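TICKET: design request
STATUS: open
ATTACHED STRUCTURE:
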């Protein structure tokens, strides 16, 4: 049996803050959304595997890229399934290569200097996810800016949720060092039982910037032609709004702040209502 380069963590779509290929997506496209999610999930698990060295992580991610491009072998099944999906749908492989680039960064880069540095990471770790789904639906690339805002917002919110675990398990800190210094904090504050005043100020500043992204992301659903995807993006925007508010009230250092079943239920109702709009914006 061929050994796989993938190292599944057990995380799945149910663990995400947003729906992945939900019933709102056209049935014939859902398997391709799931294929992309699995590809990204397996690459993420490699990058987050504490038992692997940085060089070994990069080697395995490179191998996923080779199989994606037609390399022979059964050692990267998620990449092989993703290649089959791309052939069937005609979507370009660039979004897949972009997320691999982000996970190579995760393997080798442990600190981020400022907001722009963090947004540079999100360009490859988050934006391609939404772009892939938009391309699957044949949507206009005019939707990319608002898509990128939404995906980047979700990425930063996830970083805030996992700030303690990322530091403890991987020595990886996405909170920009420039902001930590500005507010009189440091990475060691993540080892405290609760957020220090400086760390709380850093988190609040990041939430301010994230709220700006979410406001920009509200322009995404009206730009989406596909009715189901339009509603799903409206649901996701509302989930981002709700998680931003929860992180305002909660302390991610004291314990993981997450959405509740109530949040998901209300976000679906709000998203279905907001997503009724069919007019494409200029």
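STATUS: resolved
RESOLUTION: sequence designed for all positions
ATTACHED SEQUENCE:
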């Amino acid at each position: 049996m061929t050994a796989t380069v993938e190292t599944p963590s057990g995380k799945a779509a149910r663990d995400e803050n947003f729906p992945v290929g939900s019933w709102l997506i056209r049935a014939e496209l859902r398997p391709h959304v799931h294929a992309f999610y699995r590809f990204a999930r397996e690459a993420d698990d490699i990058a987050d595997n504490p038992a692997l060295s940085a060089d070994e992580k990069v080697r395995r991610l490179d191998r996923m890229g080779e199989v994606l491009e037609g390399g022979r072998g059964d050692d990267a099944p998620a990449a092989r399934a993703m290649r089959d999906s791309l052939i069937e749908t005609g979507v370009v492989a660039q979004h897949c290569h972009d997320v691999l680039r982000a996970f190579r960064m995760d393997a080798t880069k442990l600190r981020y200097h400022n907001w722009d540095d963090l947004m540079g990471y999100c360009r490859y770790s988050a934006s391609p996810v939404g772009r892939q789904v938009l391309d699957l639906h044949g949507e206009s690339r005019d939707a990319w800016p608002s898509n990128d805002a939404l995906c980047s917002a979700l990425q930063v919110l996830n970083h805030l949720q996992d700030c303690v675990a990322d530091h403890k398990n991987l020595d990886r800190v996405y909170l920009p060092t420039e902001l930590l210094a500005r507010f009189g904090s440091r990475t060691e504050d993540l080892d405290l039982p609760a957020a220090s005043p400086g760390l709380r100020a850093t988190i609040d500043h990041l939430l301010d910037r994230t709220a700006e992204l979410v406001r920009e992301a509200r322009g995404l659903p009206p730009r989406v032609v596909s009715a189901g995807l339009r509603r799903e993006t409206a649901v996701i925007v509302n989930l981002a709004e709700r998680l931003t508010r929860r992180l305002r009230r909660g302390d991610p250092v004291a314990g993981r702040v997450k959405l509740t079943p109530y949040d998901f239920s209300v976000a679906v109702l709000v998203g279905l209502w907001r997503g009724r709009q069919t007019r494409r914006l200029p």
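CLOSING REMARK: The chain has two domains: 26-108, 110-282. The radius of gyration is 19 Å.
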